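User: Could you go from structure to sequence for me? I need the amino acid at each position, not a summary. Structure tokens:
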């Protein structure tokens, strides 16, 4: 798993009931405030994040890979929880047909890493937070193994 589950990840997973024999393999937190990789866009996103935190709000996005499915969890809160929205999407791991990653560097030191997963029904692209290149490579390797297994069992298109 890419790091241990953080308290925020544990909170996001509180509403998820794991099936019998299901184990979490990766949990990646994405940047819910991501506006782009340009320095001014990153600065604006940081200001929005700061203002949300000061007012008791948040936007948290998690990509959770288990041995049976892919979960996309989004949690939003405003004004100390006066408004809350939580969404959970689940996709069978056999429906994953493509996965990848990307890294963009601006001004030599501002890095933006993204991961994406394409399933038979949707495509998800997330700017990831607090992951090193090795963690992103491990994610892509794991997803590659999953996609190869899907193609060998003919569950992927």
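Assistant: Here is the amino acid at each position, in order:
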């Amino acid at each position: 798993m890419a790091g241990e589950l953080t308290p925020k990840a544990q909170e996001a997973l509180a509403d998820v009931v794991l099936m019998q024999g299901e184990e979490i393999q990766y949990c990646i937190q994405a940047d819910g405030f991501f506006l782009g990789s340009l320095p001014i866009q990153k600065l604006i996103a940081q200001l929005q994040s700061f203002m949300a935190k000061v007012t008791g709000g948040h936007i948290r996005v998690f990509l959770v890979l288990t041995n049976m499915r892919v979960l996309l969890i989004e949690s939003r809160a405003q004004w100390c929880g006066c408004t809350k929205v939580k969404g959970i999407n689940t996709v069978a791991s056999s429906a994953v047909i493509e996965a990848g990653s990307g890294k963009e560097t601006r001004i030599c030191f501002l890095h933006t890493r993204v991961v994406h997963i394409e399933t038979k029904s949707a495509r998800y692209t997330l700017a990831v937070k607090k992951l090193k290149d090795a963690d992103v490579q491990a994610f892509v390797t794991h997803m590659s193994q999953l996609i190869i297994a899907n193609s060998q069992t003919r569950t992927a298109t």
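One structural detail worth keeping in mind: The radius of gyration is 16 Å.
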